[in-house]
Design brief:
Length: 297
């Protein structure tokens, strides 16, 4: 069984689950999962964990994301993207300056209402399942953070129905399609996302992502170690004696270290392999996830 991370450049038309299913076949193992769902029409960085790395996916999921998207103003759809049916057409006229001002309103800590086509579960059912059945239910707003919302191009020449290319850096859980729809409303009309590409997830960016054909051709060359998978965490190297404690999930201490009580730490053994993720508790570190073979997996 392979343990590690594959940075996939997802193609349009594939669901995130489709990619996972394909890589199960490619690597010949069942233990495969992904961090951070991408919609079928969206492309770009999808992080896929193999083997023990699947236990680390929640740390990858929590990382900030960067997207580039195209917004069509004046047209609303049922899914808030190009895959849905048109529900409204309203001619809109605004300047580049007015658009930039509107973008700034969505930078910082904001609240979003999740779209009905999202994978969030309410009362045990995913919203997209309810949407497919023609149901729409009330959803509570959720807090997210938008770090950057930058205008890259503005197609104002399209009279009544302008378009814009934007760059968004945001926290995990942010819905870009909702951001686009809310932006359209703020400008006095409506909007939807026509194209969306995830450029990065944490420090893993599109330049190190592999298309599926490349992974199929050379699967082993596309796998990063579990240690590299956790490169965004502070890494602490331990000696052989401490490695034995970590393998059994025992608390450890590291001399002259001040711990961030809200932080997670990647514990690395003397041979350079990832042993576990630990969290600070008082003056010691306690096990959160142990991935070392000594843990008996």
């Amino acid at each position: 069984m392979r343990d590690g991370l594959v940075v996939v450049d997802k193609e349009p038309g594939w669901t995130s689950h489709d990619v996972v299913a394909k890589l199960r076949s490619v690597f010949g193992q069942k233990r495969v999962g992904h961090a951070g769902t991408l919609d079928p029409d969206a492309t770009g960085v999808l992080l896929v964990g193999l083997g023990r790395a699947t236990r680390l996916l929640r740390f990858l999921q929590a990382a900030p994301k960067v997207y580039r998207g195209t917004i069509q103003f004046g047209i609303a759809t049922t899914t808030l993207d190009a895959a849905g049916e048109v529900t409204q057409k309203t001619e809109m006229t605004f300047s580049r300056e007015e658009l930039v001002v509107a973008l700034a309103q969505f930078v910082g800590d904001i609240k979003q209402i999740p779209p009905m086509v999202s994978a969030i579960k309410i009362d045990g059912k995913r919203l997209y399942e309810l949407a497919r059945a023609g149901e729409e239910i009330e959803r509570a707003p959720r807090p997210v953070t938008v770090y950057r919302f930058i205008l890259e191009d503005f197609g104002e020449s399209k009279a009544g129905f302008p378009t814009a290319t934007v760059l968004v850096e945001c926290s995990s859980g942010t819905y870009i399609r909702t951001l686009a729809a809310d932006l359209g409303e703020a400008l006095g009309g409506c909007a939807h996302i026509t194209t969306l590409r995830r450029l990065s997830s944490g420090s893993f960016d599109i330049d190190e992502a592999h298309e599926l054909d490349a992974i199929i051709a050379n699967p082993d060359e596309c796998v990063l170690s579990t240690r590299i998978a956790m490169r965004d965490l502070v890494q602490i190297a331990v000696d052989a004696d401490t490695e034995k404690l970590v393998g059994h999930g025992r608390p450890i201490t590291v001399d002259n270290t001040v711990y961030d009580q809200s932080g997670s730490y990647a514990i690395v053994g003397p041979k350079g392999s990832l042993l576990a993720i630990y969290e600070a508790r008082g003056n010691e570190l306690v096990a959160d996830v142990v991935v070392a073979p000594e843990a008996g997996e």
